[in-house]
Amino acid sequence: MSTRSTSSFDRLTRTTVLFLGAIAFGIGTVTLVVVEPLVHQLPSSFAIVAFAGFLAILSGLWIVRSRYKSGVQQTTIPNVEAILSTPAPGHETDRALRRLTHLREGTLQYREQIQERLTSAAVAVIMRREDCSEAQAIHQLEEGTWTDNETAAAFFSGGNPPKEPLTARLVNRFFGDNEDPYEGWVRITVDEITKLAEIEPATETDETDDASDTDTDDTGGFFERFTSKIDGEEDDITLLPASYKSPLEDDDAERKGNVASRRVLETNHWHGISAIALVGAGWGMLTFDPNVLLVSVVGVALAAYARSGSAPSVTALDVERQLSNESPQPGETVEVTVTVENTSDSFVPDLRLLDRVPGPMEVVDGSPRMATALNAGQTATFSYTVVAERGTHEWPLVVVARDFSGSVEREAAIDVESEMDCVPSLQTIADAPLRAQTSLFSGQMETSASGSGLEFFAMREYQEGDPMKRIDWKRYARTNELSTIDFRQERAAKVVLLFDARDSAYVSPAPGRRHAVDLAVDAGTEIFTALFDRGDLTGIAAFDTVPCWLATSAGDDHSERARQLFARHPALASLPPELKDVEGSYVDPLRHVLRQLPVEAQVMLFSPLCDDYTVEVARRLDLMGHLVTIISPDPTNDRTPGQRLARVERSMRIASLREREIQVVDWNVDEMLGLELERAKQRWAV
């Protein structure tokens, strides 16, 4: 969680330069102040002083460069008030475009990647719009006849990006303010593909409007690239901060009891003083001005004061956390109160406290952070309110302690004995859209077999032993012949709720919005309850790096097992696989599910459909005779070319699934799930 971009070599170099500067300062001071006044006739005194002054100025300038290049080093405090942010679909295209046009990296690799992505989307759109073959669609692209926009047509027909005026190129090169020609070419082409596909614009929300467009942020022009490149700096914009992992898991963390701490971090706050002192001393030596030299002594004293500091110990902090409700329901608010006591005998002059709220939970009132100073035996208290999310949550208190000067600091994480256990209750406001063999039904599974039931099936001759209530007495009164009414036999449906929980499913329309897996699990909880309440046999499965399977069954014990699985199973956790503490390996969904899936079971597949893999899973399940219904929360947006392209691709996947008579609920997540299911039922009934 700390910013530690300065390498050990840089620290050694800076220390060496500072040491040489101090030696030069000492030699020059002694020569100028002591030796030179006593021995005016020594010809070598001027050379010694001048050399020492020159060396001191060079040392100071080197420190200025190092300070300007590395900046102030300090612990990076994550934004834990908002929920964990995940990227929007299409972020990989935007990242490739950004690296290609602004960072000038992977020219051939990224250009081919972008070309292939746009070609695939354009072919799919043309095939659907023109009802033609793939070869005919490719021919239209190569000939440029698929659109009237000459710029977009040239993208696939071997043309060149539109030329940019010289002044615009210079501004873009040095300041990074203008759009790169290739970037503009891609944007125009994507917009034309979107127009051809007749994709409706994404619904704008306050969260989307306020969110910064991190995937396409400009990194600046020549000057920023020249001055800001430092060792260890990430070029990629990531929305999955490592701070959401267990803290201080790196190699230099030391654990003592319930406290894990890193080594002391030099903040560089006072390096400017060292540079000023050395440059001033060097100038005083070169000009043989003792007054300037003596004034620089003040800077030397301040620099020495800063370097003499040591970070306070944080092992003697006693932390207590109280929760207003330790077993809340998802969506309920919980007040958290944290009390920190300094049990040591020393004063902590600068203490930064941060309760590292778990990524899925949002702070809605108060603040989980506090800055204070603690005397021996003194306590500090702060409180905040969070919205509970499913799962069992434990989290540490992150502490950053500094000395008086602020030149050094120490970061630590203190484990706190408190736990929030949030298990959803099974309740629903939505009906499950199950399928019959020949028609949509609500309730238990319709079959083609006759027997007892509610819906008329057939009329047959009376057989001895038939129940009296099933005899058609009206017909007997007319014809004096006994006949028996058979009704459509009903039986409990077997349904498996299958969740796409791969890393690619953890996507959301904008930073700070809930990702598709969380939305899918919420929907699955409601649908499971609807099926369970009407007597259907329901199971749960997920394909992720951690196997997840609950066989179809019924009863209170089964319901409780499902409730615990929704809350605690790693495959359905709110954190993406790369941030989970559970180790796993690849799970083939078909092999994992099919070997346990009942032959007559239906599958309700929950996925954002952001890649072709889940589409292939649905197709293969359908070919094997399982009726498939897909509940797909829409995580797409249209703020960037990559996002618009991903929106088109998802639309084409849904259309291809529906062509195969696989039912898809394209869920606009700004709408209630129940309303979307009702609309889908009406559409399927027609």
UniProtKB/TrEMBL annotation:
<dbReference type="Pfam" id="PF23933">
    <property type="entry name" value="DUF7269"/>
</dbReference>
<feature type="transmembrane region" description="Helical">
    <location>
        <begin position="12"/>
        <end position="34"/>
    </location>
</feature>
<feature type="region of interest" description="Disordered">
    <location>
        <begin position="198"/>
        <end position="227"/>
    </location>
</feature>
<dbReference type="InterPro" id="IPR013783">
    <property type="entry name" value="Ig-like_fold"/>
</dbReference>
<keyword id="KW-1133">Transmembrane helix</keyword>
<dbReference type="InterPro" id="IPR055693">
    <property type="entry name" value="DUF7269"/>
</dbReference>
<keyword id="KW-0472">Membrane</keyword>
<dbReference type="Pfam" id="PF01882">
    <property type="entry name" value="DUF58"/>
</dbReference>
<feature type="transmembrane region" description="Helical">
    <location>
        <begin position="46"/>
        <end position="64"/>
    </location>
</feature>
<protein>
    <submittedName>
        <fullName>DUF58 domain-containing protein</fullName>
    </submittedName>
</protein>
<feature type="domain" description="DUF58">
    <location>
        <begin position="459"/>
        <end position="573"/>
    </location>
</feature>
<feature type="compositionally biased region" description="Acidic residues">
    <location>
        <begin position="201"/>
        <end position="218"/>
    </location>
</feature>
<dbReference type="InterPro" id="IPR002881">
    <property type="entry name" value="DUF58"/>
</dbReference>
<keyword id="KW-0812">Transmembrane</keyword>
